[in-house]
Design goal:
With about 140 residues, the protein is of the alpha+beta class. About 35% of the residues lie in helices and about 30% in strands. It contains 4 helices and 5 strands. Strand 2 and strand 3 form a beta hairpin.
């Protein structure tokens, strides 16, 4: 995934400490998707991915920060979202991205499902936390 970090200088931010914050992050992402002119189908895919990743960040990472910004590149517009926690990290990212795998009681579709719903997906994880970056293009 290209580095869209510069876009985060003007990003909207939500700190996630409980489930109501996940709802706030999801609403922030939906608003940006609407502003970028994304179709309802693309909005729904992006918001679903954001909801799954926000929930995972809360449950497995103990909370964290969600940053989101609109991206314009050539003729297209999209929404970039970054999820950052300071949890224990993911020991085996490849395994965690496998459909059906779960470290808890979930259905095991969070990371792999979110990855399928967006156009670009990047994850890095270590003992000091996990960062997931996603991008959904509107057109």
């Amino acid at each position: 995934m290209r580095d869209y970090g510069a876009a985060l200088a003007s990003a909207d931010t939500v700190s996630v400490a409980d489930s109501s914050d996940v709802v706030s992050a999801r609403q922030m992402v939906r608003t940006l998707a609407q502003r970028s002119g994304m179709s309802l189908v693309h909005q729904t895919k992006l918001v679903t991915a954001a909801s799954e990743l926000g929930r995972n960040m809360l449950v497995y990472g103990g909370g964290g920060v969600v940053r989101a910004a609109t991206i314009t590149e050539a003729e297209r517009r999209g929404v970039y979202v970054e999820f950052e926690d300071r949890g224990p990290g993911i020991a085996d990212i490849e395994l965690a991205l496998t459909d059906g795998w779960t470290s808890g009681s979930g259905m095991g579709l969070g990371l792999s499902g979110a990855k399928r719903l967006v156009d670009e997906f990047d994850i890095s994880s270590g003992p000091d936390g996990t960062t997931v970056r996603i991008l959904k293009w509107g057109r």
